């Protein structure tokens, strides 16, 4: 259910939130007992805050980064004698903009210094912005060197922040700097290509232009009386127009160069590529409908192999997840208290009970509360294959030899008003909730639907989902969109998660795909030019679609629905060459014994919700 959210403390879309009342996904809390979480608080030890601005970090190539620091102070604002452990936030959203939370006084009043830095080419920092480039990543280590050497720093550094400032933390941790002791990454990206920019091989026309435009716009706000702003702001605009933002968007939309395929450009900008290097204890916060919904649990999974890690996933879109909207709830503290617990343990060595934080805590739609487990994917999950049957049924039984087929119109604009659109614009489009954002039946008019009978008992789904669809098209190519919805007894079809794939990019690298009980449940598509496979007009082909992970309880009396369509705009817009091949045509979903379209679900015993797992 969508509802209006109060303005949160998000780093990425806070301007949108405050100006447009961005909304996120939420649900009313359940009445069942809360999961067991440690409760921790340490009273403030300082009454005031002292801010030191105008700091410059001179990098190896002479570029100067703009920094500021908040220091613990007395009630009159006189800075206390240090040195202090330091919390570091590196952002691309202009640390000087008052509405953006790039520092945290809650930590400072408890004895931490908090440093905020504009990354290269953003805010008041010099240089050209190229979004997590190798050059920018190298800067992160130099920033740590600088922070560790300041007189107010005791050499112990934790990193904190949401969105952009969460992504910088993971690249920073990959340097394994000896001063870096803890990471608290709120709604970070894992895989730049697959998570957000080119999901399923289709560009996210909703979020990417807005995001790059936001970085550019915030970089032009002279929010601090710094003479350097008169020099760097025009540089930022020129760079956006000629070097990075506009050229990248243009090339991607037009399918020019190789940026519409996966490769070095996107691998360099994907924290999952360096996650195996991280040895810094890491706390990851994610959202069930966040723009980084796919990557957040994968980051946790990769990082925990080599160091202490925890995962918290709430019922959030990006804005709400950035602030942990709705917490505390069900015994789970708010994000500031959790972060203090994490930093006190790993920077100060205080027995804050952080070791007792459950490995994984997820909100479960349908149960409408937080549930803990011993890992991700859920250790008790078992694969179940459900078939798209004749007559629109979703059943465990294989289709008949003479099973049916359903044909839908291929056009690029379906999904324009949907939960998906609200999600993939970080919640911005959902600012004014419309019926079509709360009920997928409007979109289903142009989609094929397959629905179970009413559940006789609760069904708990937790993890990634794979749809194995047999399709044919009258066009040269096709987009294949899969939605998972929960249909209540009154007929409302609530979209829970989705996946999209360009059919010609259906090739799978089996060595990098995930399996459960021998069934592939999370396909890994190379998305390279060389991996393209011909579709052919009228030729049935099997298309394995990755449906992003979720946590859902289908209540007894409710029904599970899978819908299949040809588009999910603006979440997915094919680059121009692909759009020409797939924009207009007829997409047929086959479902017979020879071509059995199906979905593989990770099903967990519903009893695990009542009693937290291992």
Automatic annotation (TrEMBL):
Where on the tree of life does the source sit, at the highest rank? Bacteria
What SMART domains does the database record attribute to this sequence?
Answer: PepX_C
| Domain called Xaa-Pro dipeptidyl-peptidase C-terminal: residue spans | 340-600
Q: Which UniProt keywords apply?
A: Hydrolase, Signal
Q: Where is the signal peptide?
A: 1-27
Output the Gene Ontology terms for molecular function: dipeptidyl-peptidase activity
Can you name this protein?
Xaa-Pro dipeptidyl-peptidase C-terminal domain-containing protein
Lineage here is: Bacteria, Pseudomonadati, Pseudomonadota, Gammaproteobacteria, Nevskiales
């Amino acid at each position: 259910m969508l509802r209006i959210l109060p303005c949160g403390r998000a780093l990425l879309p806070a301007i949108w939130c405050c100006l447009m009342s961005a909304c996120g996904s939420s649900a009313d809390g359940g009445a069942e007992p809360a999961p067991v979480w440690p409760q921790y608080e340490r009273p403030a030890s300082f009454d005031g805050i002292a801010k030191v601005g105008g700091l410059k970090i001179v990098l190896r190539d002479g570029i100067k980064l703009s920094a500021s620091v908040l220091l613990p102070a007395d009630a009159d604002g006189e800075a206390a004698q240090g040195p202090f452990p330091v919390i570091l936030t590196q952002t691309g959203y202009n640390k000087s903009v008052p509405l953006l939370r790039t520092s945290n006084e809650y930590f400072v009043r408890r004895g931490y210094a908090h440093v905020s830095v504009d990354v290269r080419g953003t805010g008041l920092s010099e240089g050209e912005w190229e979004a997590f480039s190798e050059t920018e990543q190298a800067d992160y280590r130099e920033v740590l060197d600088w922070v560790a050497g300041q007189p107010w720093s005791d050499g112990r550094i934790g990193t904190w922040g949401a969105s952009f400032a969460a992504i910088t933390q993971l690249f920073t941790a990959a340097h394994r700097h000896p001063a870096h002791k803890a990471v608290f990454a709120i709604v970070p990206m894992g895989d730049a290509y697959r998570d957000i920019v080119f999901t399923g091989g289709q560009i996210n026309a909703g979020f990417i232009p807005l995001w790059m435009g936001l970085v550019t716009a915030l970089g032009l706000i002279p929010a601090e009386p710094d003479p350097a702003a008169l020099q760097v702001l025009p540089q930022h605009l020129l760079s956006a127009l000629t070097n990075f933002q506009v050229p990248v968007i243009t090339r991607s939309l037009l399918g020019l160069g190789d940026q519409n395929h996966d490769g070095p450009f996107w691998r360099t900008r994907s924290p999952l590529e360096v996650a195996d290097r991280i040895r810094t204890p890491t706390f990851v916060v994610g959202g069930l409908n966040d723009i980084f919904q796919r990557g957040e649990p994968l980051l946790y999974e990769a990082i925990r192999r080599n160091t202490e890690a925890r995962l918290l996933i709430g019922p959030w879109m990006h804005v709400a997840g950035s602030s942990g909207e709705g917490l505390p709830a069900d015994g789970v503290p708010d994000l500031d208290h959790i972060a203090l617990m994490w930093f006190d343990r790993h920077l100060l060595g205080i027995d804050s009970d952080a070791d007792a934080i459950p490995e994984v805590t997820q909100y479960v739609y349908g149960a409408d509360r937080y549930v803990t487990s011993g890992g991700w994917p859920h250790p008790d999950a078992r694969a179940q294959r459900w078939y798209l049957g004749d007559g629109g049924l979703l059943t465990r039984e294989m289709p008949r030899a003479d099973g049916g087929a359903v044909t839908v119109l291929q056009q690029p604009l379906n999904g324009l008003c949907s939960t998906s659109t609200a999600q993939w614009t970080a919640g911005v489009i959902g600012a004014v909730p419309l019926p079509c954002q709360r009920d997928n039946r409007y979109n289903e008019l142009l989609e094929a639907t397959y629905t179970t009978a009413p559940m006789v008992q609760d069904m708990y789904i937790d993890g990634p989902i794979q749809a194995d669809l047999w399709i044919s098209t009258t066009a040269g190519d096709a987009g294949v969109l899969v939605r998972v919805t929960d249909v209540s007894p009154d007929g409302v079809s609530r979209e829970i998660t989705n996946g999209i794939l360009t059919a010609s990019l259906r090739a799978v690298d089996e060595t990098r795909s995930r399996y459960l009980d021998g069934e592939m449940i999370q396909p890994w598509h190379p998305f390279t030019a060389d991996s393209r496979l011909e579709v052919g007009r009228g030729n049935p082909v099997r298309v394995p679609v990755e449906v992003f992970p979720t946590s859902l309880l289908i209540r007894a009396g409710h029904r599970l629905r899978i819908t299949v369509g040809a588009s999910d705009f603006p979440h997915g817009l094919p680059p121009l060459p692909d759009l020409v091949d797939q924009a207009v045509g007829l997409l047929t979903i086959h479902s017979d014994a020879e071509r059995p379209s199906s979905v593989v679900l990770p099903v967990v015993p519903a009893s695990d919700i009542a009693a937290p797992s291992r």
